[in-house]
């Protein structure tokens, strides 16, 4: 029997506790899951039937409390106010019980029934922490279900808890300071509920309340503040912290580890000043080399096979109208470039990025670089979007939403646009590293690093706004789950297969038509003052650069089509390949990145960033094209 009414469940908890993992376990919907705080920046919904109940689940961004009203907290509070969920599923990390409990205590005071998912019990067991969940449930006055979202345990019990509703009344309420409690009682006598009284006392926002209540609250807040010599919010927070501590200590059975575990030792190395940087450099280099060799190997295999069994036989056998012929040929070369060049490189890249994201390493890199980043008036946290940028700029720009100030978001997004994403890496690796030399390929990454440092320094001075301190949550290091990595890679490859591939095939066919009617020649010659004049490139590169705005890897695919071969050394000199790759890496974010920039920053800043990248690209690659021949002639 299909249930009529859906049970609205909101997943709420601290960052990186496994809310999204649980959400995708329960709904089967793929959402981003990574081991760094602030993965979920946008609300995700999922509707699913489990036996006899229809669940309407919402995955929300991670928050630490309901006190400071930062953007994520506002998202959660607005959701609670507007959507009025039937149940709050509070996900907590068993390895960090005490800190997680602060938010739990706040949630329990609201009017909505709370069910606690005591997540990561697998990890807790590994480090010797056991939690008496029955005693815990008794203390909280609600259901507590031990789960491991990653391993998928405890889900049935969770379903059972959803089916057996309880009222919010019996849930634990923090016992505040005597002084505060007596005021709460007075407010209750004036007709308010306890949680309303607590909220009014902590924030003092009496909008929509009677004058009596507003006056009483104002007097009470003043008295509490003056007698404790601290803001009311701080006093309430102090009470919650000590209660969280008490509860955690009474339900936790801790077996102290006798010696430093291997994991802790690795962790120490990762953030130590000397080894830390060496490891960071080694990881980045290893990643690029792996992509280059694995991708290159697969490419050769696929391109060769495609050439021999499809491209050559088909073009040889085809005798049709020249227009048809050119369309078929261009489309086939497009497909070959997509399958042969893009898939091998991008897939290898995605797998490696997924490993990195899910290992917890990103927060170590952020911690390691925190001091340096502050010289550029950025927080170490800004490192996370930049490293994500090596995969794809779009989620990387989205993740800048986790930064606290607009200034940091603008500067970091600009820098993300200068990080060679996997699509740009394809151009660098498949063109320059393959046909010029691997060192030439790697030198482009060094060049981009130098450019990023200069731009960061300049923007640090130009873009106004405050610099904010922010606590960086250190997530535990963990061996990434195979399933998570496969799922994540597939999620991203799907985007490529469903969105980029049709675009590529249609684009190739359109190119064929445009070529046939002579439009490409016209466009190429219009742009030739820039391409051939200033950049010293063959004129057909103009078409490739324009198509590269749609998607960066299309620059290379179009280049292959225009050059009539994927063996680029037949059509371009090494310097031309180098200049083309540098230009493609810097100029204009792709359309999808522009759309994301607009969402995060608005049109004006997006336009500035785009303009900046175009000017930079023209400047840097033009200078290379002009100066290198002069130097060569002097040698
Ligand atoms: N060992 C273990 N790892 C888990 C468990 N649940 C989630 N994880 C891992 O914890 C990390 C964070 O998971 P997410 O689901 O992205 O966490 P989140 O709470 O949605 O995080 P934000 O969106 O940043 O607030 C990922 O690396 C998961 O694989 C679990 O039960 N056990
Ligand atoms: Mg999440």
From TrEMBL:
Any one of the GO CC terms: plasma membrane
Residues the entry annotates as binding Mg(2+): 27-28
Record Pfam families: FeoB_C, FeoB_N, Gate
Subcellular locations according to the entry: Cell membrane
Membrane topology: Multi-pass membrane protein
Family matches, as PANTHER family: FE(2+) TRANSPORTER FEOB (PTHR43185:SF1), FERROUS IRON TRANSPORT PROTEIN B (PTHR43185)
Residues annotated for GTP binding in this entry: 13-20, 38-42, 59-62, 119-122
GO molecular function list: ferrous iron transmembrane transporter activity; GTP binding; metal ion binding
Keyword Ion transport: yes
Keywords: Cell membrane, GTP-binding, Ion transport, Iron, Iron transport, Magnesium, Membrane, Metal-binding, Nucleotide-binding, Transmembrane, Transmembrane helix, Transport
Annotated FeoB-type G domain residues: 6-168
Cell membrane found in the keyword field: yes
Segments crossing the lipid bilayer: 269-298, 335-356, 376-398, 410-432, 438-459, 496-520, 578-597, 609-632
Taxonomic source organism: Methanocella arvoryzae (strain DSM 22066 / NBRC 105507 / MRE50)
Tree of life domain: Archaea
Protein name as catalogued: Ferrous iron transport protein B
């Amino acid at each position: 029997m299909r249930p009529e009414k859906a049970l609205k469940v909101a997943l709420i908890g601290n960052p990186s506790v496994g809310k999204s993992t649980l959400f995708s376990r329960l709904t089967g919907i793929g959402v981003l899951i990574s081991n760094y705080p602030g993965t979920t920046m946008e609300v995700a919904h999922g509707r699913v039937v489990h036996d006899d109940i229809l669940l309407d689940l919402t995955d929300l961004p991670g928050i630490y409390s309901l006190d400071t009203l930062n953007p994520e907290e506002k998202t959660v509070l607005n959701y609670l106010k507007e959507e009025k969920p039937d149940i709050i599923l509070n996900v907590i990390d068993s390895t960090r019980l005490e800190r997680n409990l602060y938010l739990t205590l706040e949630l329990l005071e609201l009017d909505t029934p709370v069910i606690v998912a005591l997540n990561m019990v697998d990890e807790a067991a590994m480090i010797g922490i056991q939690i008496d969940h029955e005693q815990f449930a008794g203390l909280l006055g609600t259901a507590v279900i031990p789960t491991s979202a990653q391993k998928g345990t405890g889900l049935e019990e969770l379903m059972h808890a959803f089916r057996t509703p309880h009222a919010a009344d019996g849930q634990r309420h923090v016992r505040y300071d005597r002084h505060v409690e007596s005021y709460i009682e007075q407010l209750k006598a004036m007709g308010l509920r306890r949680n309303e009284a607590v909220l009014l006392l902590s924030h003092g926002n009496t909008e929509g309340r009677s004058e009596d209540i507003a006056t009483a609250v104002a007097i009470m807040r003043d008295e509490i503040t003056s007698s404790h010599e601290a803001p009311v919010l701080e006093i309430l927070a102090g009470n919650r912290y000590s209660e969280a501590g008490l509860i955690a200590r009474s339900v936790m059975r801790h077996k102290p580890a006798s010696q430093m575990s291997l994991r802790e030792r690795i962790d120490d190395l990762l953030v130590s000043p000397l080894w830390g940087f060496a490891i960071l450099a080694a990881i980045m280099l290893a990643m690029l080399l792996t992509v280059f060799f694995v991708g290159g190997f697969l490419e050769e295999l696929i391109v060769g096979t495609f050439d021999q069994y499809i491209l050559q036989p088909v073009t040889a056998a085809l005798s049709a109208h020249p227009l048809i012929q050119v369309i078929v040929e261009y489309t086939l070369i497009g497909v070959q470039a997509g399958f042969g060049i893009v898939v091998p490189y991008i897939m290898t890249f995605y797998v490696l990025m997924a490993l990195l994201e899910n290992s917890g390493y990103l927060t170590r890199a952020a911690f390691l670089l925190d001091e340096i980043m502050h010289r550029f008036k950025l927080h170490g946290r800004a490192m996370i979007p930049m490293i994500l940028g090596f995969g794809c700029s779009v989620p990387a720009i989205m993740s800048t939403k986790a930064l606290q100030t607009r200034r940091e978001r603008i500067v970091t997004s600009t820098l993300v646009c200068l990080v060679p994403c996997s699509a740009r890496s394809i151009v660098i690796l498949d063109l320059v590293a393959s046909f010029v030399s691997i060192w030439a390929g790697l030198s482009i990454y060094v060049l981009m690093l130098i450019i990023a440092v200069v731009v960061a320094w300049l923007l640090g001075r130009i873009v106004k706004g405050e610099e904010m301190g922010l606590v960086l949550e250190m997530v535990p290091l963990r061996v990434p789950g195979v399933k998570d990595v496969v799922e994540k890679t597939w999620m991203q490859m799907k985007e490529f297969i469903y969105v980029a591939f049709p675009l590529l095939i249609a684009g190739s066919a359109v190119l064929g038509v445009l070529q046939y009617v002579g439009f490409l020649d016209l466009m190429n010659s219009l742009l030739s003052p820039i391409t051939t004049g200033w950049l010293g490139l063959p004129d057909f590169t103009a078409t490739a650069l324009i198509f590269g705005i749609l998607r960066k890897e299309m620059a290379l695919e179009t280049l292959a089509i225009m050059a009539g071969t994927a063996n680029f050394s037949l059509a371009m000199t090494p310097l031309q390949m180098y200049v083309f790759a540098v230009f493609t890496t810097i100029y204009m974010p792709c359309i999808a990145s522009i759309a994301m920039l607009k969402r995060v920053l608005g049109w004006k800043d997006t336009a500035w960033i785009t303009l900046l990248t175009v000017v930079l690209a023209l400047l840097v690659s033009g200078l290379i094209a002009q100066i290198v021949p002069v130097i060569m002639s002097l040698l």
